[in-house]
Specification:
Carbamate kinase; nine-stranded mixed sheet
Length: 239
Amino acid sequence: MPDRQPRYKRILLKLSGEAGVGGDKFGIDPATLDTVCEEIAQVTAAGVQICLVVGGGNIFRGAVLAESGMERASADYMGMLATVMNALALQASLEKKGVYTRVQSAIPMEAVCERYIRRRALRHLEKGRVVIFAAGLGAPYFTTDSAAALRAAEMGCDALFKGTSVDGVYTADPKKDPDAKRYETLSYMDVLSKDLRVMDTSAVSLMRDNSIPIVVFSIRERGNLLKVLTGEGVFTTIA
């Protein structure tokens, strides 16, 4: 455990399907899943309340199918169902590590998870349980970024953490441009005006309106989530 105390009491962790569960592959990668759940377990052990929103791109991308001619609403609903599969996988892995977890879906499916109810989710967090929000917002035309921003505001989170495969926000894609520079801090307007594509513009605007900082960091480095929470890791803060 780090010497410094976590800077935030309650956070929402936003993961893409690839970074959080798939490991840049199709389907669910057990090694990636285990690594992410170990990060979350460390955070809960430090007393931080954490909720999650995970994407479904490792299983299905609704936007891609919509571009090929499928009705957008149907494609988006299929993408939402993919996020439920990822959420259940995260829940199973976390509970193997002794972390009590609840999955709440914006699309009711009581046979496998709870229906999203804000006050119930808050109660779970207060009891130290991890809450995973699945199925986006339960409506087409909204991304999981928008869902993460809304849930962070509803849960009264101190910050929204976005776990990616890179350690912050750069002037260009660091995997393609070796001269790309990492930002230490950015304002919400910097992200919007420079079109940095950290998250959807609607999600960034909602965070700005509610004064919730966005912390972008690499979820791939072991122990990094807890380091960033204590201010010791490498990350970019948008506030």
